[in-house]
Amino acid sequence: METSDQSVQSGQPNYNIPPSSPINYQQSPPPQSQQPPAQYQQPPPVYYQQPVSPQIPAQPPIETIVGAIPLRKMKSLGRSDSWTAIITGSRIVFAQITSQMVKDSLQQARDQAKAQGKGMLGQWSEQMKGAYSGYTQRFLTMTPNAALAETPGNIAVDNMTIREIKFHTQENYRGGELYNSEFKVEFKSSQGNYEFQMSDDAQAVELFKQVYGDRVKMPFGYHSFGHGIHFKIGP
């Protein structure tokens, strides 16, 4: 071959070295940087709350009527209007009894007497008893607010505002003889002053004393023991 001959002629050794493929040097992956050990983190606290039931608003105390006392309010020429003092634990309601109310009460008393088999005289007697006392008793079956709203002009006075309830004796004579004794009653309060007439009734007086205590001022020499027992010292 020409190549061999040329190599021999040149006197240099012939190195028949086949071409080699390029050498791939595998590079090792770079060392991973060491991560610091994970630290324990406490989970956030969880708060448990009992379910709150809806608040029920407090109900105001029930206002109860402790008594009803017939009164009269004097007008001119000896005339008078009928009223009732409706007493509760927190106030006193002055309620009017109109003429229509009296008519209704009379009719009711008449019907009840007739249903009981009473004659004309008995019916008349029941009418006289039921004319005012019947309607006063009716207030005991009503709420104080209903009694106050029944007639325009009715009055409510808070018990705490009453300074004094003063009784004055009034004795009425006919032909030189005493035929009737009653009270003039003054109610003095920061809401106003009110004046009425009231029968000389020991039970009614005791009711006022039970509710208003020392604020009730009786006439000199008057003493009552309840149950209709009372007496007066002096003329």
Commentary on this structure:
The chain has a four-stranded antiparallel sheet, sandwiched between helices. The termini are far apart. It is α+β, with helices and mostly antiparallel strands and 235 residues long. The chain is 26% helix and 32% strand. Helix 2 packs antiparallel against helix 3 (120-130). A hairpin with a 5-residue loop joins strand 1 and strand 2 (80-88). Residues 225-235 have low confidence and may be disordered. It has one domain (65-232): Pleckstrin-homology domain (PH domain)/Phosphotyrosine-binding domain (PTB) (PH-domain like, Roll), CATH 2.30.29.
CATH T-level topology = PH-domain like
Structural class: alpha+beta
Unreliable residue runs: 225-235
Envelope shape: elongated
Helical content stands at 25-40%
Strand percentage lies at 25-35%
Q: Could you tell me the mean pLDDT?
A: 76
What's the total count of β strands?
10
- CATH class equals Mainly Beta
Instruction: Work out the count of structural domains.
Output: 1
Cα distance, first to last residue?
180 Å
Major beta-sheet overview = 4 strands, antiparallel
> At the fourth CATH level, what is the homologous superfamily?
Pleckstrin-homology domain (PH domain)/Phosphotyrosine-binding domain (PTB)
Order of helices and strands: HEEEHHHHEEEEHEEE
Number of helices: 6
Spatial strand arrangement across the major sheet:
1-2-3-4
CATH architecture name: Roll
Radius of gyration: 54 Å
